[in-house]
TrEMBL record:
Its main location: membrane. It is a multi-pass membrane protein. It is found in: Cell membrane; Membrane. It comes from the Bacteria. This is Probable membrane transporter protein. Signal peptide: none annotated. Belongs to the 4-toluene sulfonate uptake permease (TSUP) (TC 2.A.102) family. The chain crosses the membrane at residues 7-37, 43-62, 74-93, 113-131, 151-174, 186-206, 213-233, 245-262. Pfam families: TauE. The lineage of its organism: Bacteria, Pseudomonadati, Bacteroidota, Flavobacteriia, Flavobacteriales. InterPro entries: TM_pro_TauE-like (IPR002781), TSUP/Inactive_protease-like (IPR051598). Keywords: Cell membrane, Membrane, Transmembrane, Transmembrane helix.
Length: 263
C-alpha cells in the first residue's frame, strides 16, 4: 500500500466519523478525496460516493435507531420522491450531459469541471447553513402537506443525484424546518433517507459504469468503522460547535475546488 492509498483510507475513516457525528457531510469529503487525492474521474467519484455514503449511513441508521433518534414514517415520506429523482438523475441525466458544456475562445467547460463546480456551489450553501447562528424560535410549525414534501424530495433528490451526495446536509435542516422534528431525531432520520437515496442512485450507476469493487468495498468498510466511532463519540462532543467547525472546513474546501477547476 503506497502513501496515497493510505491517505485515502484515512480519509474514508474521517468520512464515516463525520456522518456519525452530524448525520451528513460524508459526500462533501468523499468526492474531493476521490478526485483530487486518488485521481478518479468526477463521474466515477460521485458514483463511488453514493455507495460509500449509503452503506455507511445504513449502519448509522441502526445505531441511531437503537437510541430512539429515527422517525421512519417521516423519513420514508421524504425518501420516495427523492430516490426516484436520484435514480433517474444517475441513470439518465448524468450520462446524458455532453462532454463539453460550452466553449469560449480557447476555454472549454467540460462535464467533469461542471460537476465539480456545481458540487462546490452546493458545498458553499451547506457551509453557510452550518456556520450561521441558529435562532431560538419557540414557534411550533405544523407539518406541511405531503405534496410539498414530494416536490422538496424531488428537488433535493435531483441535486444529490447530480453531485453524488447522500444529501444529509440538505435533509437535516429540511426535517427540522418542514417536518418539525427535533434536531437529534432529524440527524437520525436523515440517515434513513441518505441510505435509500444513495444506494438506489448507485444502482443507476452500476448500469452505466465499470466499478472497482475491491477498492470500493474496502473503502466503504473503513467508512463504516468510522461511522460507528462517530456515533459513539457524538455523546461527548457539542453538536453545535462541531457543526460550525465543519461548516468552516466545508467553506474552505468549496473555495479550493472552484479555484482548482477554474485556474
Amino acid at each position: 500500500m503506497d502513501s496515497t492509498q493510505l491517505l485515502g483510507y484515512i480519509g474514508a475513516l474521517i468520512v464515516g466519523l463525520v456522518l456519525g457525528l452530524i448525520g451528513g457531510g460524508g459526500s462533501i469529503l468523499t468526492v474531493p478525496l476521490l478526485v483530487y487525492l486518488l485521481g478518479y474521474n468526477p463521474v466515477i467519484a460521485t458514483a463511488y460516493s453514493l455507495f460509500v455514503v449509503g452503506a455507511s449511513s445504513m449502519v448509522g441508521t441502526y445505531q441511531k435507531y437503537k437510541k430512539g433518534f429515527v422517525d421512519f414514517k417521516t423519513g420514508l415520506a421524504f425518501s420516495f420522491p427523492s430516490f426516484v429523482a436520484v435514480y433517474l438523475s444517475r441513470r439518465y441525466l448524468v450520462p446524458g450531459i455532453p462532454d463539453t458544456l460550452f466553449s469560449f475562445g480557447d476555454y472549454s467547460l467540460t462535464k467533469e469541471m461542471g460537476i465539480m463546480i456545481f458540487f462546490a456551489i452546493i458545498m458553499l450553501l451547506a457551509s453557510f447553513s452550518m456556520i450561521k447562528k441558529e435562532k431560538n424560535n419557540n414557534i411550533i410549525s405544523k407539518s406541511q402537506p405531503y405534496y410539498k414534501t414530494f416536490i422538496q424530495g424531488l428537488t433535493i433528490g435531483t441535486i444529490t443525484g447530480l453531485i453524488g451526495a447522500g444529501g444529509g446536509f440538505l435533509y437535516v435542516p429540511a426535517l427540522v424546518v418542514w417536518a418539525n422534528i427535533p434536531m437529534k431525531k432529524a440527524v437520525g432520520t436523515s440517515l434513513v433517507i441518505v441510505t435509500i437515496n444513495s444506494l438506489i442512485g448507485f444502482i443507476g450507476d452500476v448500469q452505466t459504469l465499470e466499478i472497482e469493487w475491491i477498492f470500493l468495498l474496502s473503502f466503504t468498510l473503513i467508512s463504516i468503522i468510522g461511522i460507528i466511532l462517530g456515533v459513539f463519540i457524538s455523546k461527548f462532543i457539542s453538536g453545535k460547535k462541531l457543526k460550525k467547525g465543519f461548516g468552516f472546513f466545508v467553506l474552505i474546501m468549496a473555495v479550493y475546488i472552484i479555484y482548482k477547476e477554474l485556474k
